[in-house]
Amino acid sequence: MPIGKPKQRKIIHIDMDCFYAAVEMRDNPAYRNKPIAVGGDGPRSVLCTCNYAARAFGVRSAMPAMTAKSLCPELLIVNGRMSVYQDVSRQVHEIFRRYTSIIEPLSLDEAYLDVTDSTLFGGSATRIAEAIRCDIFNELQLTASAGVATNKFIAKIASDENKPNGICVIPPDKVDEFVADLPLIKIPGVGPKTAQRLMQAGLVTCRDVRASTPAALQLLVGKQAESLYQRSFGKDCREVVTHRERKTVGVEKTLAQDIAEQSECRDVIQDLLPKLKARYDKHQARGISKLTVKLKFDDFALTTVEQQAVSIEPNLFESLLQRALERSNGRKIRLVGISVGLNNLTASNKESDQLSLPI
Ligand code: TTP
Ligand code: MG
After folding, report:
1. 45 in contact with ligand 1, CB cutoff 6 A
2. How far is the C-alpha of 10 from the C-alpha of 23, rounded, in Å?
């Protein structure tokens, strides 16, 4: 390899198929050939996920149970068993560790693996990904999908291409072609609002972003412009991070009935405060950087208001609540949450390291 040329990385993204629903089907054979979803089936419940039989009817994650039932009247909605999903997630991670120690979990059912330096299967990332999917199937009776590429962004998008129970490999010489027609909404970090703003400016695919200018992008998406520009050429130099520091600690409550009064929201925050303090206690060494109030309105829209702070101040939560409620436009409140931002321990350590250097 010529000196100075960076080594081509081999990244795998693994994502379990309809994870909670798949575990339920595995453990309850009666669910197997039926459309099922996991969640509550009360009038105010929202689905966590559903199996692929239910998806054929248009049922989706995060959909209100009532809507799902109207799309698919025979949908069976089962209660979730979080501790079982956590156990399965641990078992999946044990399988990952047979192949690499560089694992970055994204959620219970999703992780990035860096196998650049692996010598297994002659160093073939594709064969490693297939071996992982086989182990998961043989040992846990569950299916996973995999994306294999030279960076995290492409691997993540690839894992979705041939779902369920599929693999998609994007070799370096196919990246350009794969990315050019990619709709921007598929890029992690580009949410529906950003995608809408980009579309209004005529930007729908990565090809459109390539033809734009960094300055124009800056106006549209602010500080996200640089990474969006990079992604549109298939570039992503983020490492697979094996340990990520928690950034916030929070508590929230979904209300039994939507509320409209500020005083009622204030009462909910009063109830949540001791829980927040108890949770923060475990992270005291980090110190606090900000306080945040989050509200979910009755149309499921979320809003957050935050302010820098160094301690849990009930009065500050109150004024943040007031500012959040100003955005309600007559909507009622469905959920109230409060959280604290934690200082970055690693950064402060680095700082003290620098201070202790001899001058
Ligand atoms: P996902 O990987 O997004 O979805 P999935 O595994 O159910 O389906 P897919 O085959 O498309 O990957 O999320 C993993 C689990 O996280 C999912 O099984 C349930 C949970 N979840 C929620 O509880 N709420 C949500 O809104 C979403 C998206 C997921
Ligand atoms: Mg999944």
Report:
1. no
2. 29
Ligand located closest to 61 CA = 1
Contacts of 24 (CB under 8 A, 6+ apart): 31, 36, 38, 78, 81
| pTM attached to this predicted model | 0.77
3-state secondary structure of 328: coil
Please give the number of the atom of ligand 1 that sits closest to the Cα of 17.
Answer: 10
User: Which residues are registered as beta bridge partners of 252?
Assistant: 337
Structural contact between residues 279 and 249, judged by C-beta atoms closer than 8 angstroms? yes
Report residue 69 as tokens.
């039932």
| Strands in 17-130 per DSSP E | 36-39, 47-50, 76-78, 103-107, 110-114
Q: Are 147 and 170 in contact (CB under 8 A)?
A: yes
Residue tagged 């693999």 (tokens): 167
Sign of CA dihedral 92, 17, 231, 216: negative
- The span from the CA of 353 to the CA of 359, in Å, is 12
Any idea what DSSP says for residue 9?
A: P
DSSP letter, residue 46: B
Tens of pLDDT along the chain (359 residues)? Answer: 456 667 899 999 999 999 999 999 999 999 999 999 999 777 788 999 999 999 999 999 999 999 999 999 999 999 999 899 999 999 999 999 999 999 999 989 999 999 999 999 999 999 999 999 999 999 999 999 999 999 999 999 999 999 999 999 999 999 999 999 999 999 999 999 999 999 999 999 999 999 998 889 999 999 899 999 999 999 999 999 997 778 899 999 999 899 989 999 999 999 999 999 999 988 888 899 999 999 999 998 999 999 999 999 999 999 999 999 999 999 999 999 999 999 876 543 333 333 333 32
Q: Best of 13, 14, 19 to mutate for ligand 1, by most ligand atoms within 8 A of CB?
A: 19
Tokens 């299916």 map to which residue?
Answer: 143
Q: Which of 350, 322, 353 is nearest to 336 (CA)?
A: 322
